[in-house]
Amino acid sequence: MKMKAETLTLVLVNLAGIMERADESVLPAVYKEVGAALHTDPTGLGSLTLFRSIVQSSCYPLAAYLALRHNRAHVIALGAFLWAAATFLVAFSSTFFQVAVSRALNGVGLALVAPAIQSLVADSTDDRNRGMAFGWLQLTSNFGSLIGGLFSVMIAPTTVFGVPGWRISFHIVGIISVIVGTLVYLFANDPHFPNNDTNANNQVPNRTFWSEVKNLVQEAKSVSKISSFQIIVAQGVTGSFPWSALSFAPMWLELTGFSHGKTAFLMALFVVAGSIGGLFGGKMGDILSTRLPNSGRIILAQISSGLAIPLAAILLLGLPNNPSSAIPHGLVLIIMGLCISWNAPATNNPIFAEIVPERSRTSVYAMDRSFESVLSSFAPPAVGILAQHVYGFKPIPEGSSESQEILTDRENAASLAKSLYTAIGIPMALCCLIYSFLYRTYPRDRERARMEALIESEMQHMESDGLAMDREIQSEELFIGDYDGDVADDDDENILLYRQLTFSNLGT
């Protein structure tokens, strides 16, 4: 049975989302090996993510422009090809500078993909099921993180034909990304471009480049003035800071004494729980939005962000700092993943789709990612700085015995845990507080967007009616122009009668 075009597009778009997150998760999963190979400390490792995020954030306006003017499926494919090329460069790099440049270039490709994917999902859903759709998107994306992280951690300590395992993992992710990008380009469809028509009629008319830039800037200004957008971006900056900081979680578990296999398994538990939690949160958001349309989604987000504070304290500060506590670590990671992953699918992404017109959805998602990622990208360096300069993280001295290395690792694990909790607890508390302002602004902004959509729809109806009238008038003029004056008088009467009937029909 042939798969519907819409279903095939959603499958391919989710595949692209999987590979996007897999690509992002490869480097954090092999921080320890990369640090040893490049002789880099935690601050340097964190700065690699910072470089990528800064470039990624600066390229989101380009992503919005391309998604507005071009087939979004093709934009996603282009992003996949770009990040795959940069991933290959990381695998071939032999110095810290080369890795830093490659990761920065990697941000260009990643920036093009996310807004296009999110706007495609938003356009394909309505207020009743949008949260669930974004929950599925989060689930599949987290599956990408699981694959990338688990695979990289497992292959990191191996060597294949003299090539370190961490380099092999980058090669494999790059190859799969090229395959997925090719499939998206060939088979995915953008509903704004039926049958992959690059000159679809419902797209904006051809204008000069600078005219398009001015329009994009004007749209960005109008979106940035929306109060609810400002609030969600503000909470997103604080709320995404802890998730970015968690890139050090595999390194913390390994320093605690867990093997590569156990570390991969524990992180897999967290990612799977977060995926299921996102799906649950999205569904609950849809349910609460029908029963409490002005506050349901906001309440859910505050519960989720509030629970992160005590759960992170138990995980990082309460559990024993030794590898014999794998079961308690796994249990807390599961509960934490289930509870702290609701914000994006249940609240942020659905609300964004409701407070702006449909034509501005790509812009609002691109701007959100730009503002959030550029600031949250400081989380990994902040964790590294706190661990080294505040909580006493120190490198293992050369010539240390095995027992001394183990002792130093345990001390460093405790230092890293404290810095991680600092980067999680404080931002999550601020995130929960900032959500409170949405109770006032969200209902007002949602109704304003609905009125704008209604007015725009009426204007389009008027324009289409006017176009139909013009066509009938033009056909009438052509009919009269065919008259050569040689027919009988009764034909003149017929022509006059025809004109009267035509214009009487236009008036009805």
From TrEMBL:
<keyword id="KW-1133">Transmembrane helix</keyword>
<feature type="transmembrane region" description="Helical">
    <location>
        <begin position="298"/>
        <end position="319"/>
    </location>
</feature>
<dbReference type="InterPro" id="IPR020846">
    <property type="entry name" value="MFS_dom"/>
</dbReference>
<feature type="transmembrane region" description="Helical">
    <location>
        <begin position="231"/>
        <end position="253"/>
    </location>
</feature>
<keyword id="KW-0813">Transport</keyword>
<keyword id="KW-0472">Membrane</keyword>
<dbReference type="InterPro" id="IPR036259">
    <property type="entry name" value="MFS_trans_sf"/>
</dbReference>
<feature type="transmembrane region" description="Helical">
    <location>
        <begin position="265"/>
        <end position="286"/>
    </location>
</feature>
<comment type="similarity">
    <text>Belongs to the major facilitator superfamily. Spinster (TC 2.A.1.49) family.</text>
</comment>
<dbReference type="Pfam" id="PF07690">
    <property type="entry name" value="MFS_1"/>
</dbReference>
<feature type="transmembrane region" description="Helical">
    <location>
        <begin position="168"/>
        <end position="188"/>
    </location>
</feature>
<feature type="transmembrane region" description="Helical">
    <location>
        <begin position="134"/>
        <end position="156"/>
    </location>
</feature>
<keyword id="KW-0812">Transmembrane</keyword>
<feature type="transmembrane region" description="Helical">
    <location>
        <begin position="420"/>
        <end position="442"/>
    </location>
</feature>
<dbReference type="InterPro" id="IPR011701">
    <property type="entry name" value="MFS"/>
</dbReference>
<feature type="transmembrane region" description="Helical">
    <location>
        <begin position="373"/>
        <end position="391"/>
    </location>
</feature>
<dbReference type="GO" id="GO:0016020">
    <property type="term" value="C:membrane"/>
</dbReference>
<feature type="transmembrane region" description="Helical">
    <location>
        <begin position="103"/>
        <end position="122"/>
    </location>
</feature>
<feature type="transmembrane region" description="Helical">
    <location>
        <begin position="75"/>
        <end position="97"/>
    </location>
</feature>
<dbReference type="GO" id="GO:0022857">
    <property type="term" value="F:transmembrane transporter activity"/>
</dbReference>
<dbReference type="InterPro" id="IPR044770">
    <property type="entry name" value="MFS_spinster-like"/>
</dbReference>
<feature type="transmembrane region" description="Helical">
    <location>
        <begin position="331"/>
        <end position="352"/>
    </location>
</feature>
<protein>
    <recommendedName>
        <fullName>Major facilitator superfamily (MFS) profile domain-containing protein</fullName>
    </recommendedName>
</protein>
<feature type="domain" description="Major facilitator superfamily (MFS) profile">
    <location>
        <begin position="9"/>
        <end position="446"/>
    </location>
</feature>
